[in-house]
Amino acid sequence: MIHRMHGLAVLCALATLTAIPAMADCASEDDVNQFAADYIARKPAKALGANGDMVDALCTQARLVEVLSEHMGPVIGEIWAKVVDA
C-alpha cells in the first residue's frame, strides 16, 4: 500500500511539473504591445505565442483585443462578448 501511495505521489508531481511549462506561453504584455504597435504601423510583426496551446492562444487573444480596442474601438459581436464575460 505504501508503494502505491509513493507511486501516486511521484506521478502527481511529474504531471504537475510537466504542465507548468505549457502554461507559460501566453504572450507577455510587452510582446502584445509591440505586436499591436507593429500592426497599427503596418509593419511586419513577430508571431505571438507560436508554441502555445489553445489556452495560451485565448489568453494572448484577450490581451491583444484589450490593447487593440484602445485604437480600434470596442469589440462588436455576441460571440466575443460571451468569451470575455466567461
Structure report:
The protein is an all-alpha fold. The chain is built from 4 helices and no strands. The longest helix is centred in the first third of the chain and has 21 residues, at 2-22.
What's the helix and strand layout?
Layout lengths: L1 H21 L6 H12 L13 H19 L5 H8 L1
Helix pairs in contact: 2-3
With helices defined by DSSP (H or I, 4 residues minimum), what is the helix count?
4
Q: What's the main sheet like?
A: none
Poorly predicted runs are 10-14, 16-23
Averaged pLDDT: 76
How many whole angstroms does the radius of gyration measure?
A: 19 Å
The oligomeric state is single chain
Q: First CA to last CA: what distance?
A: 42 Å
Instruction: Kindly estimate the percentage of residues that lie in beta strands according to DSSP.
Output: under 5%
- Helicity range of the residues? 55-70%
> Helices and strands, in N-to-C order?
HHHH
Principal-axis shape equals flat
What is the total tally of β strands? 0
Structural class: mainly alpha
